[in-house]
Amino acid sequence: MDIQGKVALVTGGAIRVGRAIALGLAQAGADVVIAYHTSVTEAQATVAEIHALGVAGLAIQADVSDVSQVQALVEQIEAVFGRLDIVVNSSSRFQTTPVMTTTIEEWRQVLGVLLDGPFFLAQAAAPLMQAQGAGVIINILDLSAFEPWPNFIAHSVGKSGLLALTRGLALELAPAIRVNAVAPGAVLAPSHYDPQKLQQVADRTLLKRWGSPQDVADAVVFLARADYITGETLIVDGGEQWGRPHKASDSQLNQ
Question: H or E element: which one contains 2?
Answer without folding.
Answer: none
